[in-house]
Amino acid sequence: MTFLLAVIIGVLYAAGTYLILRRSMVKVIFGLIFLGHAANLMIFTVGRLTKGAPAFVAEGASGLTGAFADPLPQALILTAIVIGFGVQAFTIVLFKRTYQTLGTEDLDEMRRTDQLPGGKS
Length: 121
Prior knowledge:
The protein is an all-alpha fold. 64% of the residues lie in helices and 0% in strands. Helix 2 (25-46) runs antiparallel to helix 3. The termini are far apart. The model has no long low-confidence stretch (mean pLDDT 84).
């Protein structure tokens, strides 16, 4: 299971990096989404995958014994999801406003800011 997740994480990182380097704003947004999901899966995988073993200490016991799920990576992932959503929402609004101002979604065309479309300066 860990090997499969490692392959999926690698594919998501590769796809995210590839999409961020494209010229279209929509592809950049999807690249950010893929990178966010890859980071979350990596944190989840590093935090040891244990099925059906919550991190509860039994009454009268002095500590945890055996395999147990670590709750810290799960809390980090929840925080990362919220932060990732905020970054994605900000990026979408920023690109929308940029498209309204410049009239193009091509990132190479956006570099020519000397003169705006329609003869506006």
